[in-house]
Specification:
The complex is a heterodimer of chains A (about 325) and B (about 350).
Chain A lengths: L1 E12 L2 E13 L4 E5 L6 H8 L8 E9 L2 E2 L5 H7 L4 E4 L3 H4 L6 H12 L7 H11 L5 H4 L9 H13 L5 E5 L7 H18 L2 E5 L3 H7 L2 E6 L2 E7 H6 L4 H8 L48 E4 L2 E3 L15
Helix pairs in contact in A: 4-5, 4-7, 5-7, 7-8
Chain B lengths: L21 E13 L6 E13 L3 E5 L6 H8 L7 E6 L9 H8 L2 E4 L13 H12 L4 H14 L4 H4 L8 H13 L5 E5 L7 H18 L2 E6 L2 H7 L2 E6 L2 E7 H6 L4 H9 L41 H5 L5 E4 L2 E3 L17
Parallel strand pairs in B: 3-7, 3-8, 5-6, 6-7
Antiparallel strand pairs in B: 1-2, 1-4, 8-9, 9-11, 10-11
Helix pairs in contact in B: 3-4, 3-6, 4-6
């Protein structure tokens, strides 16, 4: 359904361009839930925004292909993209308060999406908005629909954002850190809701997050990004138990729950190279305990076993620990 | 082998002494704020009593609005109690004059969440680290320089980096610099308010390890405030669970996180997303209804009752007593037993 190929995004900095993602490729099948993980600056948000055509055109360059149901979103005229965005691809962002307009009721904002895409069915919009609020578990939806964002709690606002994203029943929902601003008990409600909605309606999900626990509980596949590249793409449960890329393994081993209580926590030494100073070979090489001379050559994302893609020359020979034991 | 640094053996096994004297004594602490229009009162902290023992790491967990940050600020005299008292090393800071207080409070320091906001972007790192000692006075410029550079070296910041500006270093390094700045004052206690929340997972471990090393080296006492359950249970000796301005539970970290007594703690622990394959997760998640109520008008009786799956009429009528159900392990719930929260009949 979504097929991203060789996606490279660069930003204009001074006189030149700096690539922040390089040759990103992955696909999402109908109903599949893909978790995109990685640390700040790895390019996961930029990848999501580029699919939606939301990067500033004047300062960014996007190359490659983003095929959505067979059509390339990058080369699509703006008007046609607008007809897809919000209708067939929904989106949710991290901070529900800044994404909602404080001077309109939540009902008006949810209905706007519907009216934009179904102008001939305007009179149904309010009814649709009430239905959407009910579906995302908001109590008394017929009353809440006339409330303003400030009258709702953070969790309720994020439910409103989900209702807005789902009102046109899109086939793909892109959610960028949708639970990061929420408390853990509310986060559990929202991730459960997203999974249930995806399962019941067959909506595919691209779930961008830094939280590996959230991915484990919400998604079916996990895409690990590092320094603007995809380094691993695998079914979630397999990636958690037996990661094939040293970076995925390092991330999983850094989680405090695996270390002995009060003992030292493992971490990954060094830091991510700056976008303007990316090495030509493996971008993780300088932080990797398994690096060998061959890692200085450019690495490709290879299918090392059916459904498992890794950007590491040593993927087959290394036995890397995961989140278990 | 994995892409992680090895675990130095000596770092494991720090255990604070349960009989250590109290460095901090908090009694019936209430902290109230007027709302924006002044018509109502927010009870951010509403009747909390506890002690922090010398040399321990005292974890405080809670969701937003639980009062944990307000409590931390009160511990370092950044906020005044509305009622109740805080004694630091046997002294009530309110009894001190402003000059004595300035000298006294250097022993009780705080580090905040956002390492970027805590450093002046127009000052070099060295200037920022020097500043507390300049305020305290009594040292020559050369002595202050040396103390600042020593503290920076201790947290792994080289002298040449000290001449740089904050935007030239990473988030993890900035938080190290904030630690160095506090270390120059030789504090007895540091309140750490969400100090690793803004850091990426791969460097979080380094900073937490540094905290642990400094504790051993300088005999520091920490009050570690966080919403991150895995961090608090890893680093703390004892953990307090806050909800809407009150403690729900307080006990040894392992006991509280693995075998809690309060239904809120149990739900909080079960809500934490665990990065394990579905076949290895236990699916006994307790999904709490709704969200934390307003601290302007908290529920009567037990504050958690509006979201508690075990709430009964008594919970509306009566504030639960603070009971020690297991050794050193306290809970505020009418119906918890030494076996655990209500509904848990067999001990685990």
């Amino acid at each position: 359904m979504l097929d991203v190929r060789d996606l490279t995004v660069s930003f204009r900095i001074g006189a030149g361009h700096v690539a922040v993602t390089r040759d990103v490729g992955f696909h999402i099948a109908p109903g599949e839930r893909l978790g995109v993980v990685g640390e700040s600056g790895c390019g996961k948000t930029v990848t999501g925004l580029s699919i939606l055509g939301l990067l500033p055109r004047r300062t960014s360059q996007v190359s490659g292909q983003i095929l959505f149901e067979g059509e390339d979103l990058i080369r699509m005229p703006a008007a046609k993209l607008r007809a897809i965005r919000g209708r067939r691809i929904g989106m949710i962002f991290q901070e529900p308060m800044t994404a909602l307009d404080p001077v309109f009721t939540v009902g008006e904002q949810i209905a706007e999406t519907w009216r934009t895409h179904f102008p001939q069915q305007r009179e149904q919009a309010r009814e649709r908005a009430v239905d959407a609020l009910a579906r995302v578990g908001i109590p008394l939806p017929a009353r809440r629909v006339d409330e303003y964002p400030h009258q709702l709690s953070g969790g309720m606002r994020q439910r409103v954002m989900i209702a807005m994203a789902l009102i046109c029943e899109p086939s793909l929902l892109i959610a960028d850190e949708p639970t990061t601003a929420l408390d853990v008990t509310v986060q559990a409600q929202i991730t459960d809701l997203l999974r249930e909605l995806s399962e019941s309606a067959g909506t595919a999900l691209m779930f961008i997050t830094h939280d590996l626990g959230v991915v484990a509980e919400t998604c079916t596949r996990m895409l690990t990004m590092y320094a603007g590249q995809v380094v691993e793409d695998a079914p979630v449960d397999e990636a958690l138990v037996r990661p094939r890329h040293p970076y995925t393994s390092g991330l999983l081993r850094s989680l405090p729950r695996l270390a002995p209580r009060r003992g030292a926590l493992p971490s990954i030494p060094g830091r991510v190279p700056l976008p303007a100073q990316m090495p030509p070979g493996c971008r993780f090489k300088d932080r990797c305990p398994h690096a060998i001379d061959e890692c200085a050559a450019p690495q490709v994302l290879r299918e090392v076993e059916p459904g498992r893609f890794v950007r590491c020359i040593r993927a087959e020979e290394l036995e890397l620990p995961g989140a278990v034991g | 082998m994995s892409a992680v640094s090895p675990i130095p053996a000596q770092t494991a096994g720090h255990v604070a002494d349960a009989s250590a004297p109290a460095l901090v004594r908090v009694r019936d602490l209430c902290i109230e704020f007027p709302t924006g229009d002044g018509a109502e009162t927010v009870k951010a902290v509403d009747g909390v009593s506890f002690e922090v023992r010398a040399g321990e790491t005292f974890g405080i967990i809670g969701e937003s609005g639980s009062g944990k940050t307000t409590l931390g600020r009160a511990l370092v005299s950044l906020l005044q109690p509305s009622s109740g008292s805080i004694e630091l090393d046997g002294v009530d800071p309110r009894s001190l004059g402003s000059r004595r207080l300035r000298e006294f409070r250097r022993q009780f320091q705080v580090i905040f969440q956002d390492p970027h906001a805590a450093l002046n972007p127009r000052q070099t790192i060295l200037a920022s680290v020097r500043e507390p000692l300049e305020i305290i006075g009594g040292k020559s410029a050369a002595e202050i320089d040396q103390a600042a550079l020593d503290a920076l070296a201790r947290v792994g910041i080289a002298p040449e980096q000290a001449r740089r500006y904050p935007h030239m270093v990473s988030g993890g390094q900035k938080q190290r610099i904030n630690i160095a700045r506090v270390l120059t004052l030789r504090p007895k206690m540091i309140v750490c308010d969400e100090v690793v929340a803004a850091l990426d997972v791969s460097i979080r471990g380094d900073v937490l390890n540094l905290f642990a090393d400094l504790q051993r080296e300088f005999g520091l006492t920490y009050v570690f405030i966080t919403h991150d359950l895995s961090v608090v249970s890893h680093i703390s000796d004892r953990v307090a669970v806050t909800y809407l301005g009150r403690f729900m539970e307080l006990g040894p970290a392992e006991d509280v996180t693995e075998n809690p007594l309060h239904p809120y703690t149990e739900a909080l622990m079960s809500a934490e997303p665990i990065p394990l394959p579905s076949s290895m997760r236990d699916n006994r998640r307790i999904v709490l209804e709704g969200e934390i109520p307003s601290p302007i008008d908290p529920p009567s009786g037990c504050r958690f009752r509006t979201r508690c799956p075990h709430a009964r009429p008594r919970c509306t009528e009566e504030v639960p007593a603070w009971r020690e159900l297991r050794p050193d392990h306290w809970v505020a719930c009418h119906f918890s037993s030494p076996d655990g929260p209500p509904g848990k009949s067999e001990p685990q």
